[in-house]
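Tutorial sheet, problem 5. The two components below are modelled jointly, 714 residues in total.
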Amino acid sequence: MRLKIERRKNDPTKLSIFLMSVLSVLISLAILGLIILSLGKNPINAYVQLTSWPFGTVAGLTQTLISMMPLLFTSLGVLIAFKMKLWNIGAEGQFYMGAFAATWGALFLFKGISSPWLMLPLLAAFAAGFGGAWGAAAGWMKAKLGVNEILSTLMLNYIAIYWVNYLVYGPWKGKGSYNFPITATFPKAAILPQYTSDGLNLGIFLAIATSFFVFYLLKRTKFGFHMDIVGDNPIAAKYSGINVKKMTIAVLAISGAISGLGGMMQMSGVLFRLQPNFSPGYGYTAIIVAWLARLNPFVAIAVAFLFGGLLVGTQQIQLFLQIPFSLVSVFEGLVLFSLISGEALLRYKISFKGVRT
Amino acid sequence: MKFKTLVIVSMLLAIGLFAFAGPLKIAFVFVGPINDNGWTQAHYEGGVVAVKKAFGDKVQITYIENVPEGAPSLNVLNSLASRGFKLIYATSFGYMNQMVQSAKSHPNTIYEMCAGYKLAPNLGEYFGRMYEPRFLSGLIAGAMTKTNKIGFVAAYAIPEVIRGIDAFTLGVRAVNPKATVHVVWTYSWYDPPVEKEAALSLINSGCDVIAQHQDSPAAVQAAESKGVYAIGYDSPNMGRFGPHAYLTAPIWHWDAFYVPNVKSVLDGTWKSESYWGGMKDGVVGLAPMSKLVPDGVKKLVNAMADEIKSGDFHVFEGPIYDQNGKLRVPAGKIMSDSELLSIQWFVKGVVGKIPKK
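Model answer (structure tokens):
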């Protein structure tokens, strides 16, 4: 027997890509059910818990929307970079830098400002700046030194996370925290408008607005057009007069800025104080969200909503079936794995042939 | 459209019926796994198991393990309240601000916060005077050390932990004024590998008794592997991890709090208060001393335990000097509860620093 892998003649159609994406999620859910079954719990009950509350009740939907917000920002961030085939896996670090900048501004630099109309835009700009710088750093290293952005963005994540840890364990530790690693609470002016008592806030709508901005940038501007060309064929782009190096830095900067903005929204909209491990890995889940959304900023809204709900739903599974928390990561891993395999199967044909001697 | 409304209304009705008719729904939010042989297990046994046993069908109990402290816990707390849990216990200091936030938005749910210090009309606080049995365990450590160096593996430099180290050291120095207590911070309640490393570093620097304020028995295991003595914490189960090392442990008997507390909610007599029980209330105590402890020491410890229970002896009675030799509590004076709850200094004999802001 011999395994033969051939490229398919036709590129996959939109419909087949869509069906494959849905199928990956379903297959992952099925495997998840098997795992739950092997833990001695009822998988049907788990599916009910996973979906009924986060998608079927007002309070649950609110939680879903809140979890969706940081996911959408970070997935829009990575999506832009992926569009130009820049594999930015540093959204987590860029998100952290945005949260850091927002906290720096809210608690120290702009502390005297009492108008939210001035404070919030300042914090947003500041956070986008730091997140953008974090992305641009990787872009600069790639453009000038040829450093692979997968490695540099990943490494920069750790720097950002440990930087935040240093601050909250050390100089930024809040007065009322009695030495517990957590900063003081944001002043009123630095808090986004809240619509319900359980945390529905302006950040969610700004995240959706950002999807429109990203769509506009990608589809309706010359910059977006150039991104397409560079992504498809950097050599051709270079010969047609596009400055590929500049584009690399700029795209990673925008990518980082959006994730950084997400960090600010999470601080000002949901958390109000910085502490270690404040993100359950939004920046990594974002990669799966962007990929499932096929790099379409509108589809990303729906996928982020779905994953936000799954985050809330897995908590419910844990609550009512007492199944470990780490199941979320297992599920995300399964989705990514089946997506990548599905992608390969769409583009390549695998056949077995008898060995000829 | 009509049908949709009907469905929503009937769903709300169903939720309402469940909320008012059935048993009292109680939820426990845990920082670690219920089989940690330490802190969380003590809450699980004294809370979930004992309450179920005491009230049977009148209560319906769920619990959620490994909930990260701080920001991520808010989602969990809000979900619980929205899903009809009427009594929520959170068992770690780092949940305090989220408990306050969630209690504010769910006024019909009763919240009970372990080891915090903020009250609200529907938020109570509970904790135990662990410093009493810690003092007793200090007496044993002081009597057992040969090198006069005792190690203490400690989580966070918050008053709860500092108070315990101080009480322990007062006990050590009461029987052995030459001995010193060396503190290493781990910055985590539950991180077995880090706890073990911290214990090993203390043992390598010459400590021959290892005490701890951690939730796992890792430090006991480390002591066992190096042939030195260990004092556990939380639960007598820790003894299993060091048959040749384990002396005793200051432990929790949480049923002494949870059972009456749940009863007060069932009877409708619950009110928001700060519960701080001691050895005489039975909520804290010293685990049976192992056979490694000589009879003479056992007698002394038992005698002191009786004095503490009767109120004849108070651990924090002056004169008490701080690390720098300054008299903090004059002779004859007893530190007040509020001073103890916010203590931020080490007594004489502690070697180690409280991280400063």
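Marking note: Chain A touches chain B at residues 53, 56-57, 59-60, 63, 66-67, 169-171, 173, 175, 178-182, 185, 197-199, 270-271, 273, 275, 277-278, 280, 312, 315-316, 318-320, 322, 324-325 (CB under 8 Å). Full credit if you identified this.
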